[in-house]
TrEMBL record:
PANTHER family xrefs: PERIPLASMIC SERINE ENDOPROTEASE DEGP-LIKE-RELATED (PTHR22939:SF130), SERINE PROTEASE FAMILY S1C HTRA-RELATED (PTHR22939)
Superkingdom assignment: Bacteria
GO BP of this protein: proteolysis
Protein name: Probable periplasmic serine endoprotease DegP-like
Active-site residues, as the UniProt record annotates them: H118, D154, S227
Keyword tRNA processing in annotation: no
GO molecular function: serine-type endopeptidase activity
Signal peptide positions on this chain: 1-19
Presence of the UniProt keyword Lipoprotein in the record: no
Residue span(s) of domain PDZ: 271-362
Sequence positions that bind substrate: H118, D154, G225, N226, S227
Listed InterPro entries: PDZ (IPR001478), PDZ_sf (IPR036034), Pept_S1C_Do (IPR011782), Peptidase_S1_PA (IPR009003), Peptidase_S1C (IPR001940)
Record's subcellular location: Periplasm
Organism: Sphingobium ummariense RL-3
Length: 503
């Protein structure tokens, strides 16, 4: 700040000096900025001031007070009673006060407020939220009650009891938002209340990796503390809830994300009624159709999602969907990275019968499935693949025999004795890997001694020759990867695309 002011001062003095030396010609001249007004871009207002003046009173500051159990880092050492951990506590954990700040906006005159779930959640393990306070633009403060929250989409609804009717805003239609449209964000970055920023929509349907991501991306400045605040279109309608930023430093770098109103509004309505958010469910375990997987199937990448497993008795199983299928569309909506399968299925009415287009062995077919209700996250972990062993992280073996094989994998047929040693089901059929060349894609993806290859290119394999024959068949079709179905002890069988060795 001081440096900036010093520069400004130097420029003013310089300007004065020039004015003195050119005083003889001053009479006929005017300042360069006299009477100037910049032309607004087509479709944009000359100023946002009038719109912001009406909208700002509906945007609020949200703060929480939390209790956090702090562990003593010096427990068991001579310094255990230092830094406030003593006082008769014997070096035990102490309770500390913490505070969080964020933004929100009023959606009704009687005090219903929308914000992000993470704004009103405990910020650390072992922390509890004692109170939530809402501060209006006129500095009035109100205690807030948490009406409902949905952690999956990071949305929460609060309620205050105001002394009079309050200004509020309503949701607009984010489905009409286009890349390049102007938007305005209002919030409390770094506790600077009532901060207004503007920019354009940089992308729509942006995913950052979570199941229900469908963000609007913007270059309007969004920083810590903007979370939960509204994103407005040029008509003053809320088309997004500012939620996340992508930043290596924690500050704005022009990449912010807002939950679109098309996703947020139905959830807010449900939470406001005190009801639980219910989502559709088919009972399948899926993986993206990335480059290797798509190449192994001879399909275009990112045009669908691959079925790794099917839960018995659920909608997908009853419809005849099988592991190894690719789901291309659900109820007429194409499955893409921008519109992933989880979000499409979640939005389907529970109990509805929907058509699903699948690709099996390169052929498209349509099945009809009844959408069930998504179980709790705890229940889902019982169906999902156990995360204790990650194929991409396992250290591969390296043997001379593997170096000579087409995939860098050496394998032998399964026998009853080997099946007992591996601890896999007695009816398992396939070949067991004896060594893997670590310099190949098979090694990089974590295949290792003891893994069982059940199928290759969706064909059963009973010998090394069967595996090599399928590799040749895939190469003859111009594909650079082959799809293997692999079984590892203690885990369900999964499909894994493995790139062919370079010639």
């Amino acid at each position: 700040m001081r440096y900036a002011y010093a520069i400004t001062g130097a420029l003013l003095l310089g300007g004065t000096a020039i004015a003195v030396t050119t005083s003889s010609n001053v009479g006929a001249q005017t300042a360069q900025n006299e009477g100037m007004q910049a032309a607004a871009p087509a479709g944009a207002p000359a100023s946002l001031a009038d719109m912001v003046e009406k909208l700002q009173p509906a945007v609020v500051n949200i703060s929480t007070k939390q209790r956090v159990q702090v562990q003593n880092p010096f427990a068991g050492t001579p310094f255990g009673d230092l830094f406030g951990f003593g006082q008769g506590g014997g070096g035990q954990p102490q309770t500390r006060q913490a505070q969080s700040l964020g933004s929100g906006f009023l959606i009704s005159a009687d005090g219903y407020i929308v914000t992000n779930n993470h704004v009103v959640s405990a910020g650390a393990e072992g922390a509890t939220v004692d109170s939530i306070t809402v501060t209006l633009t006129n500095r009035e403060e109100y205690p807030a009650k948490l009406v409902g929250r949905d952690a999956a989409t990071d949305i929460a609804v609060l309620k205050i009891e105001p002394k009079k009717a309050l200004p509020y805003v309503k949701f607009g239609d984010s489905t009409k938002a286009r890349v390049g449209d102007w938007v305005v964000a209002i919030g409390n970055p770094f506790a600077l209340s009532g901060t207004v920023t503007a920019g354009i929509i940089s992308a729509v349907h942006r995913s950052t990796g979570a199941a229900y991501d469908k963000f609007i991306q913007t270059d309007a400045s969004i920083n810590q503390g903007n979370s939960g605040g509204p994103m407005f279109d040029m008509h003053g309608n809320v088309i997004g809830i500012n939620s996340q930023i992508l930043s290596p430093s924690g500050g704005n770098v022009g990449i912010g994300f807002a939950i679109p109103s098309e996703q947020a509004a139905p959830i807010v309505d449900t939470l406001r009624k005190g009801e639980k958010v219910r989502r559709g469910y088919l009972g399948i375990q899926i993986t993206p159709l990335g480059e290797d997987m798509a190449d192994s199937l001879g399909l275009a990448k990112n045009q669908g999602e691959f079925v790794q497993g099917v839960e018995p008795g659920k909608g997908a199983d009853k419809a005849g969907i099988k592991a190894g299928d690719v789901i291309a569309s659900v109820n007429g909506q194409n499955v893409t990275p921008e519109q992933n399968l989880s979000s499409i299925v979640a939005s389907q009415p529970i109990g509805a019968r929907v058509p699903i287009v699948i690709i099996r062995n390169g052929q498209r077919q349509t099945v009809n499935a009844v959408v069930g209700e998504r179980p709790s996250e705890d229940e889902l972990t019982n169906f999902a693949q156990q995360p204790d062993e990650d194929f991409s992280q396992q250290a591969p073996g390296n043997g001379g025999a593997a170096n000579q094989q087409s995939l860098g994998i050496a394998a032998i047929p399964l026998t009853p004795g080997i099946i007992r040693q591996l601890g896999v089901p007695n009816d398992t059929r396939g070949i067991v890997i004896t060594s893997v060349d670590g310099s190949t894609d098979a090694g990089a993806k974590g295949l290792r001694r003891g893994d069982v290859i059940i199928t290759a290119n969706n064909r059963p394999v009973a010998s090394q020759a069967d595996l090599d024959a399928q590799v040749k068949a895939v190469a003859a079709q111009g594909r650079n990867a082959i799809l293997l179905q692999v079984l590892r002890r203690g885990q369900p069988a999964i499909f894994l695309p493995v790139r062919l060795r370079d010639k």
